[in-house]
């Protein structure tokens, strides 16, 4: 039972960082940036490359995180700001195109093989009958700390208040003297950093290959939409629901239903759980769990 | 070499039909469909199903049209309450669910797919390639005429009004849900026919033909050719298809590693979309605004 919860919790932590980043950016510029999942892959690959270039683990991770933040701002200024002037769905298509180009760059630079960070082997820990590696605990702790810091920033600082003001009513916020463009770019920078940390935590627990971004795309979107896009912190709840659903669907013995003693759904169906939840939600509660917005046409 | 050109031109005709289908949805009605490949998949698996059951080709076409129609209506139903970006993600998710299911079930042939479908005009050898190209070109031309007629009709005006000002369209008494459902049905039928032709050309059907990357390839054809211009998207389909087909030759010519082919195709599609959106958003042949002749 605890094994089940620890699996789900680790998965939720992976999804939450990127889903919160996606939702936070959406709240300001009103388009879901698909390329964020690829920023996570950039973060992981960059950290691995920097480490093999001789940097320490912490330095490599920190440098890669900052670099991805800067990259996110660069792409926002060069591509998305211009596409958003046309329409938000055009910007969405642009972000898909950028994802494809990033995939191509990964393929050319790293090839199809999987990469790992060089990590010292640490003894696993037993906690209430569950075997957890020390690195799993570290990544979980890191995710929780980053999410808590972001929540503090959003709810307790002046910048956070400005962010919420721009998200609620951008023209009004601009009229009160908030520099909306600066606030937006800070959030984009933070979103890039959070995506990179999400990628690095995955690299800390296993290997990274070029299809990591594509595999993350729909679960992350499902989590963000479940929480209500633009409602950054509730994306955490969305991530927990998706992670639980994925873990339940692959760990439940469906034998009695199928008329057999033991029958498990193949693990490849795990993503189907999150997509199915996503589609059901879009049908019945398209604004997510917590939002009550006026329906757009 | 000429066999190869006939092959590429045949595939380009099929993709031209898919580009016209997407253009009806996205170009004229503003429906951002990222799951187009699933409608095409209904076509190829309809043909495959008929093959497995021993039905004639025409029954496969009927099965394909029914499946694609139902899926199109489901997409349209989802669109009732969603804004375009949510709908895009929803359609992408459904296409992925369908691909994963097809890959894991045994009645669809699983990951191995279904092979041995009858080849169209197989008994006309050595002229079968040309005969097929003729048929596909005819199908493309018929689709083009249908789309042109549709967008120039009163219904076409309603589609464009729904794209530009959905609230105004509703205020003027247009049934937005009805328009969406009809556009989805028509474009699903086009995609299904393209799928049946494709399946009886390759004679093999598998889940690899359902990947979302192909949806984005069709998107690039529409964006490069010219959003909401039927002639433009056919030009875009031919250009992109030939560009994709010649990537392996460029690889051999320059002596590059095999990963280059996949990467170059991703860059062609992604880069094509981004460059045109940023520099020439109206595409090669811009939409003709006005009543037309």
What is the fold's blueprint, element by element?
The complex is a heterodimer of chains A (297) and B (293).
Chain A: H1 2-29, H2 36-52, H3 57-84, H4 88-110, E1 125-127, E2 130-132, H5 134-156, H6 158-168, H7 170-175, H8 180-205, H9 212-227, H10 234-251, H11 255-258, H12 270-284
Antiparallel strand pairs in A: 1-2
Helix pairs in contact in A: 1-5, 1-8, 1-9, 1-10, 2-3, 2-4, 2-8, 2-9, 3-4, 3-8, 5-6, 5-8, 6-8, 9-10, 9-12, 10-12
Chain B: H1 2-29, H2 36-53, H3 57-79, H4 84-104, E1 114-115, H5 128-152, H6 154-164, H7 166-171, H8 176-202, E2 204-205, H9 212-225, H10 230-254, H11 259-279
Antiparallel strand pairs in B: 1-2
Which key features would you list for this structure?
heterodimer, A: 297 residues, mainly alpha, ABC transporter involved in vitamin B12 uptake, BtuC, two-stranded antiparallel sheet, 2% strand, B: 293 residues, two-stranded antiparallel ribbon, 11 helices, 75% helix, globular
What is the gist of this entry?
The complex is a heterodimer of chains A (297) and B (293). Chain A is an all-alpha fold and 297 residues long. Chain A is built from 12 helices and 2 strands.
